[in-house]
Predict the 3D structure of the following.
Amino acid sequence: MITIAMPKGRIFEEAVELLRKAEYRLPPEFEESRKLIIDVPEEEMRFILAKPMDVVTYVEHGVADLGIAGKDVMLEEERDVYEILDLKISKCHLAVAGLPNGKVNGVAPRVATKYPNVASSYFREQGEQVEIIKLNGSIELAPLIGLADRIVDIVSTGRTLKENGLVELERIAEITSRLIVNPVSYRMKDTKIDEMMERLSRVIGDE
Amino acid sequence: MSKLFMFEKPLGMRDTLPLLYEVKKRIRHAMTNEIEKWGYQFIETPTLEYYETVGAASAILDQQLFKLLDQQGHTLVLRPDMTAPIARLAASRLYEDGNPLRLAYNANVFRAQQREGGRPAEFEQIGVECIGDGTIAADAEVISLMIAALEQAGLKRFTVAIGHIGYVNALFLDVLGNEERANVLRRFLYEKNYVGYREHVKSLPLSSIDKQRLLKLLELRGDETTIIEAREQIDTEAGAKAIVELEQLCEHLRLYGVIDCIKIDLNLISHMNYYTGILFEVYAENVGFPLGNGGRYDELLAKFERKAPATGFGIRVDRLIEALGEPGEEKNIHCIIFSQERFSEAVQLANERRRKGERVVLQHISGINDIDACTKQYSDITYLIGSAGKDE
């Protein structure tokens, strides 16, 4: 039996599609279910449905063997897990954005974000000291009403930024979803995990 | 900071209640017994060490150290592991004539936790250090002893993954040409970021054969045949030496009769720049973290101004308990409840039973608040109440 932590929401459907392409026989009602734990006995698999940010936590603690997590979450959480495969789904990027011609507060520039660790280390690498304000969503609001000068967030199409009159200022990192593995599972269940990796790599292709 | 409640403990600090204490005691006894049988001698070192010496030499990351100041302003650390203190002790005192030293410990070590719960900041480790012996026989002995000790503790199913950092270093140096570039790849392995490793390899200006050799490293895991595959990837002297060492090790482990729980894992890296040769981790089912690890660290003693090869292992008792999954059994405790007039009889009975090795509680009846709740915790009760000769 192998337990896989799946991120609810946007990535979930793409991930399920990928698993089906790799010929994992998932039941048809898989996507509609509101259950948090779904057993698929014919594949000896158990899926748990978690918040995208929490997938890495389940996998690090070993209550899930594998997980599908965005690179943004990996960068933010820095958990001790193996990142073994780029699934190349849910493509987007992490970026700094702000108002066009927006002034940066020279004394204490403020950055609002859902990713305080990523933002903090990015600006430190740029040699700039900023103050980070942690928000949980609708980050675009912050510069509009004066909570922060800039934001750090994921951008996929750029539509949300545009509709709110913001512009992308700097690109931090490209993001896709990754297959991650608990370090113990990676060694104890190596045959199953290698097989899964191989089946998935075959359907992902090498660009 | 908000005012603390009186029941609160610092993050990651835990109490050990009687039931768990008994389990720990049993495991400790089983393991230390086995370790002693292999001729290792137990020692103790101080809980506090200097940050500049033991703290800096330790393999544990700086942010995980508990630091404090002594009266002279020196920074101290709560020992984060036992290997560095033992290296200090061996280098400065015990390792004199250059002959191998076999030392063992069971001690609590301290590592600060920054994240959520689920990880203790203080935990017991049982382990050994074999200092001054650079042979593969020493590596094999340490691994076999670890396996024997785990078996004595009652662990049935576990896997030991064995790697060799010398192989990884030789391969990187052969393909990449310098340490700086090798270090970039080593860090990807250390961070378990195989996606990043692959992308980085693909971006390097190398021949496709060389790229393939680097990518192949990620697949070099499995049974003993992995060593044969690994040999095909490299023909430098250092690489060949690592391969021969792995082969010898497997041969030794076969003779020890422990080869069945071994896996070869050449992409295993436990710490950055700490281990120098064979290294290993041990895993059990249903525990998400390694039970313990170890390996050869031939450069540590030199930091304490005495060069010597060394190898050892450390097992985390808390994780071993989780792997054993035993709830712990209530110990039989006999309770004698007495009233004052029969005290001498009660003492006599207690002494008699204690001499036989039983656990006996001697309880004055007037000290009891709720008799039912009180008697429930004991396996059997003798009442010595009222005038002599009239037992209830």
In short: The first strand of chain A starts at residue 2 and ends at 7.
